[in-house]
Design a protein that fits this description.
Blueprint lengths: L23 H10 L2 E4 L4 E4 L2 H8 L5 E2 L21 H7 L16 H10 L4 H20 L6 E3 L1 H16 L4 H13 L16 H16 L5 H6 L11 H15 L1 H16 L1 H9 L4 H12 L4 E6 L3 E3 L2 E3 L4 E5 H4 L35 H18 E6 L1 H4 L22 E6 L3
Parallel strand pairs: 2-8
Antiparallel strand pairs: 1-2, 3-5, 4-10, 5-8, 6-7, 9-10
Helix pairs in contact: 5-6, 5-15, 6-7, 6-11, 8-10, 10-11, 11-12, 11-13, 11-15
The structure holds protoporphyrin IX containing FE.
């Protein structure tokens, strides 16, 4: 039977599985209409244009981050009235999902909390933990290095990124094995199996509440004590629940994302033998590989904003109360910005201008950490694994691969990546 082209206009980006496997033709279709495409369904403007996306990221006067994670789902708990909904937002903010997380705050609260969290990511602190990244990677690789097979998302990427954040936060050595165990054994539920308000990282809340209560009573001079007893730039002292969420949000923001960046880069290397040989022979190419992967197949598909004051974007009027979906995967493949955007080109000029880490006031605080994590992981994996290929037993033959993509409209990346390789002695 001939392939029938999908009717893109009938697809709902936010709920339709049809755009999960390969969203890029859909993005192209939407961009063809307009780089800022208003959709009645969900009252959302889909932004596929690079320049328009940059404008939104840079404008905190007209766009609120209150919906940054969930976007238009669930809908606002109030009916937007007038050209400025600032007061309505203030009144309802606490009832919006994820309220209070750094990424959903607006100024002045955002500025004060970001300044505090940013201290965890200073270049000095990142240099200090870099040798630990290598040790964590080696430790995890030892668990599968001799078998010639690995499922790189669950056996390596997720525990690795989680253990690195635990290290950054100064989780005591004695507890690391417990964290390792929890990262590997927590169930991976499919979308349909998830109960409402399902939080796969709930176990972290209990553990970090324990740490914070202890360190508020008896500070120990460690990073956890610093967070527990934080005083923000505006002089405010966060509540216990807030300091716990500072810590747990970092796992939410930095674990699956980093694991997905690593698996997408490893997928490229495993599928393209020549690319693998080049990068294996010249490891200074790894940073370029990472940047092009971020552009080509970034782990965050959508960042969202809410228009809080009526404005105009790319010639389109956006009324206060309109949702804005910044489709990073589309903006990073905008032909007005990147030449031949659907080609994966190592060494592409100005690739670092991609929007995979966002832009502006909320730019990813973990971007440098994520880059270091993935650079060191790829280096260590190449040291221990020769002839890396995709497992045909798990993902089918080269001409008909079968990968399950992460469901939903926020993250992008394969759920499992089974690789085969020839073990190398360290
Ligand atoms: C490849 C991995 C990662 C990607 C693609 C990524 C992507 C992003 C994006 C797009 C944003 C901006 C959201 C917005 O403007 O609405 C963001 C914010 C953030 N990310 Fe990341 N992230 C990654 C890794 C990490 C890591 C490792 C950490 C920390 C351990 C982290 C911590 C944060 C924090 C704290 C924010 C909020 C910043 C703010 O609101 O001021 N991220 N990230």
């Amino acid at each position: 039977m001939a392939n029938i082209p999908p009717d893109y206009d009938s697809l709902d980006f936010f709920s339709d599985p049809g755009v999960i496997d390969d969203p890029y033709p859909y993005y192209q279709h939407i961009r063809g209409k307009h780089p800022v495409h208003l959709q009645d369904r969900h009252n959302v403007a889909l932004v596929t244009g690079f320049q328009e996306g940059v404008a939104v990221y840079g404008d905190q006067e007209h766009y609120s981050s209150v919906t940054a994670v969930n976007g238009p789902i669930p809908p606002l708990p109030f009916e937007a009235k007038g050209d400025d909904i600032g007061d309505q937002l203030t009144a309802h903010r606490a009832h919006l999902p994820m309220a209070g997380l750094l990424v959903t705050l607006d100024n002045p609260e955002h500025h004060a909390l970001r300044a505090f969290v940013a201290q965890l990511f200073t270049p000095g602190r990142l240099r200090h933990i870099e040798p630990r990244l290598q040790a964590i990677a080696d430790h995890l690789i030892n668990e599968f290095a001799e078998t010639g097979e690995v499922e790189v998302v669950r056996e390596f990427g997720v525990p690795f990124a989680g253990l690195v954040i635990a290290d950054l936060l100064g989780v005591p050595e004695a507890d690391r094995a417990w964290f390792r165990e929890m990262f590997s054994t927590r169930p991976r539920l499919d979308q349909a199996e998830k109960p409402e308000n399902y939080n796969p990282l709930a176990f972290l809340d209990d553990k970090f509440t324990e740490y914070m209560v202890e360190r508020r009573a008896t500070p120990r001079g460690d990073v956890l004590s610093e967070i527990a007893n934080a005083v923000l730039a505006d002089g405010s002292k966060p509540t216990l629940a807030q300091v716990v969420s500072i810590a747990t949000f970092l796992f939410g923001a930095g674990q699956e994302t980093t694991a997905k960046l690593l698996s997408s880069a490893m997928l490229m290397l495993a599928e393209q033998t020549e690319l693998q040989a080049r990068v294996r022979a010249d490891r200074s190419l790894i940073p370029d590989l990472i940047e092009e992967t971020l552009r080509f197949e970034g782990p965050v598909k959508t960042s969202s904003r809410l228009v809080c004051k009526t404005t105009e974007l790319g010639g389109v009027t956006l009324a206060a109360g309109t949702h804005v979906a910044l489709l990073s995967g589309a903006m990073n493949r905008d032909p007005a910005k990147f030449e031949a955007p659907d080609e994966f080109r190592l060494g592409r000029p100005r690739v670092r201008e991609h929007l995979a880490f966002g832009r502006g006031a909320h730019t990813c605080l973990g971007a440098q950490l994520a880059r270091s994590e993935v650079r060191i992981s790829i280096d260590c994996l190449l040291d221990r694994m020769a002839n890396i290929t995709i497992s045909e037993a798990r993902h089918g033959p080269a001409a008909a691969r079968n990968f399950r993509q992460e469901p939903g409209y926020v993250l992008r990346g394969v759920r499992r990546l089974n690789l085969c390789f020839t073990p190398l002695v360290a």
